[in-house]
Write a structure and sequence with these properties.
Blueprint: H1 2-7, H2 26-35, H3 51-71, H4 76-88, H5 92-105, H6 110-122, H7 126-139, H8 144-156, H9 160-171, H10 177-189, H11 193-206, H12 210-219, H13 224-242, H14 245-257, H15 261-274, H16 281-294, H17 297-318, H18 323-336, H19 339-350, H20 359-362, H21 365-379, H22 383-396, H23 405-417, H24 421-434, H25 438-450, H26 454-467, H27 472-484, H28 488-499, H29 507-520, H30 524-537, H31 541-553, H32 559-576, H33 580-597, H34 600-609, E1 612-619, E2 629-636, H35 638-667
Antiparallel strand pairs: 1-2
Helix pairs in contact: 3-4, 4-5, 4-6, 6-7, 7-8, 8-9, 9-10, 10-11, 11-12, 12-13, 12-14, 13-14, 14-15, 15-16, 16-17, 17-18, 18-19, 19-21, 21-22, 22-23, 23-24, 23-25, 25-26, 27-28, 27-29, 28-29, 29-30, 30-31, 31-32, 31-33, 32-33, 33-34
Length: about 675
């Protein structure tokens, strides 16, 4: 390793890394190199005048070619150069021998055969060339180049029958489309129309593609009936499964050129009936252009409808659960009134069931069923189908996880419209038993209330309260119904039961409703007792103010005294609890009350009790002094101000006493 590493050339260190004073670009280097190229001397032309010298020259060249072939017989270029040399010396026999040897070495090489035939043609040995073409097409019948060349040579020689015979031999192998078209073009060059027609008939059987049928029809354009017959045969041949838009476009354009506009319109409509518009946009756009040129108002509207359909089809194919697109699609179909298409859209839409049994995925989906049922009832007037839609919707919803009260109520209301009251009751009863919901209870109560079946309403309210006893709205509604029916004791009993519940969702509404109920019944003593009960549970400022206003609203002689007493109690309560804002609310309500009594002394006293607003600063975050300060408004009441002034006076006295003691010590 050390020896090998020591033998490596050393890399010279660059001492001066400064740029050279004269910079040279790569372009300049290349230009200099180009200018300094020395042209090699041309070899002198050699002229041979002696036959012996010619033989010697030929012998040397042949020896060189033979040596090259002896070294590598697979190089095609050596064979071709050798044969070209022999041809240049007019030694055709030798050249043929070279080509034959080359064919023996590689008989699948196309270039050798082509060069061999071209040599014979250059030297006007036609029969030799024909023999070569016959041999090569027999060995390699799938090489189109041989057939083209063979037919071209025969046609060039004026032997049309021979060229036709070559094509016929070729067609037996069922070659590609271009071969058939070349055969047809040759027949048309000699105005053999019937022969060309027969070749087309064979061509469309061997290559049954739409474009080939179209070419055949265009060939017959001068014969309108024959061209139409070909298009009709093509439509029957491919059927609905394999037809594409190109065939119908060509057929319609042909009829349009023949001024058969109704036929063209029928073709377009027939194609659009079973072809997917998303896979045939060109057909649809051409139909639109056709209707704009030759159609009437109804046709143009039909085109616009089809365009909108195509847009919605694209959206729902991209995402089947895009329910908004389905809503718009169904609305579009409903605007045109085709019942079969409307039902098809709805059926396709409801088949896209949400992936998970979670209500948030089902909220939009369930409205498809609702719209479908409404359509069947109001537009299609099919009652049985409407009932089936509702029932299917209820079955498809995973009721063990969640349900939609709206569906049950809509089905019940539908049965009511059909005068099946008992059936509607069974539906709502089944809904309450299967999956009780507030909306179902309320809808059932509303139904029975409208039917004036109040005993049933009481039973449903009882079930409702068993299901959710904390719902204050239900207690209030139940009590109000009893009050409207004139059953005061039952209503009061319901309120008493309600306020004694341990858990209530909105107790303030319940107490307010109970107090309003007693007040409307003019049971002022009960109302006052309710306020007192409520104040034992909560000392909220609004309760105090409401209590005071209630006392002030009474017409007896002691009403104002009781109201002032309530205000004083409220003010004292807020003061003791240091609720400054609530205390201000009490004072403002109290002042407003005294202004109504026109008692100037009391008004002045209350105005003196009003606080002042002070702007102060405090830390945004008490635990983080670096967070900064914020401004806020504080309320300073007069009694708090007097306490603060007494404290300051006592501090001054203490300070003065301290100074006196200090002076006495210094004097001593």
């Amino acid at each position: 390793m050390s020896n090998s590493s020591s033998n490596l050339p050393r890399v010279a260190k660059v001492k001066n890394k400064q740029p050279a004073p004269q910079q040279i670009t790569a372009e300049q280097i290349l230009r200099d190199a180009k200018e300094r190229i020395v042209e090699e001397p041309k070899r002198p032309k050699q002229s041979i005048t002696d036959p012996k010298e010619l033989e010697e020259y030929r012998r040397e060249k042949r020896k060189g070619y033979e040596d090259a072939l002896r070294r590598n017989r697979t190089v095609v270029g050596n064979w071709l150069k050798y044969a070209r040399f022999e041809e240049s010396q007019n030694q055709l026999t030798r050249a043929r021998s070279v080509y034959e040897r080359a064919i023996d070495a590689n008989h699948r090489n196309v270039t050798i055969w082509m060069k061999y035939s071209e040599m014979e043609l250059r030297n006007r040995n036609i029969n030799h060339a024909r023999n070569i073409f016959d041999r090569c097409v027999s060995i390699m019948p799938r090489v189109d180049q041989f057939w083209y060349k063979y037919a071209y040579v025969e046609e060039l020689l004026g032997n049309v029958g021979g060229a036709r015979q070559v094509f016929e031999r070729w067609m037996e192998w069922e070659p590609g489309e271009q071969a058939w078209l070349s055969y047809i073009k040759m027949e048309l060059r000699y105005r053999e129309t019937e022969r060309a027609r027969q070749i087309y008939e064979r061509f469309i059987i061997v290559h049954p593609e739409v474009k080939n049928w179209i070419k055949y029809a265009k060939f017959e354009y001068r014969h309108m009936l024959k061209a139409r017959n070909i298009y009709e045969r093509a439509v029957d041949f491919f059927g609905k499964d394999f037809c594409n838009e190109d065939l119908f476009i060509a057929f319609a354009e042909f009829e349009e050129k023949c001024n058969e506009f109704e036929r063209a319109r029928a073709i377009y409509k027939y194609a659009l009936e079973f072809l997917d518009k998303l896979t045939a946009p060109k057909l649809f756009s051409l139909y639109s252009a056709f209707e704009k040129k030759f159609g009437d108002r109804a046709g143009i509207e039909d085109i616009l409808l089809s365009k909108k359909r195509m847009t919605y089809e694209k959206e729902v194919l991209e995402n089947g659960r895009n329910y908004d697109a389905w809503f718009d699609y169904a609305k579009l179909e409903e605007s045109y009134g085709d019942l079969a298409k409307i039902r098809t859209v709805y059926e396709r839409a409801i088949s896209n069931i949400p992936p998970e049994p979670e209500k948030r995925y089902w909220r939009r989906y369930i409205y498809l069923w609702i719209y479908y049922a409404v359509f069947e009832e109001l537009v299609a007037k099919d009652i049985e189908r409407t009932r089936d839609v509702y029932n299917a919707a209820l079955k498809i919803v995973p009721s063990k996880n969640f349900t939609f009260g709206k569906l049950w109520l809509l089905l019940a209301h539908f049965e009511v419209r059909q005068k099946n009251i008992e059936k509607a009751r069974k539906i709502l009863g089944h809904a309450i038993g299967l999956c009780p919901k507030d909306k179902v209870f309320k809808g059932y109560i509303e139904l029975e209330s409208n039917l004036r079946c109040f005993d049933r309403c009481r039973v449903i309210y009882e079930k409702y309260l068993e299901f959710n006893p904390a719902n204050c709205t239900t207690w209030i509604s139940f009590a109000k119904m009893e009050a409207e029916l004139g059953d005061y004791e039952r209503a009061k009993g319901l309120y008493e039961l309600a306020i004694n519940q341990e858990v209530l969702d909105m107790p303030e509404l319940l107490w307010k409703a109970y107090i309003d109920f007693e007040y409307e019944e003019e049971n002022y003593k009960e109302t006052r007792n309710l306020y007192k009960k409520l104040l034992k549970r909560t000392q909220h400022v609004k309760v105090w103010i409401s209590y005071a206003k209630f006392e002030a609203s009474l017409t007896d002689g002691q009403a104002q005294v009781r109201a002032r007493s309530v205000f004083e109690q409220a003010h004292q309560c807020m003061k003791e609890n240091e609720l400054k804002e609530e205390r201000l609310l009490v004072l403002e309500s109290w002042l407003e009350f005294e202004k109504g009594t026109n008692d100037l002394d009391r008004i002045k006293a209350l105005q003196e009790m009003m606080p002042k607003k002070l702007k102060k600063q405090r830390l945004i975050d008490p635990n983080d002094p670096s967070a900064g300060l914020e401004e806020y408004y504080d309320l300073l009441f007069p009694d708090a101000k007097s306490k603060a002034s007494n404290f300051i006076h006592m501090a001054h006295l203490w300070k003065q006493k301290q100074l006196e003691q200090t002076n006495q010590l210094q004097s001593q």
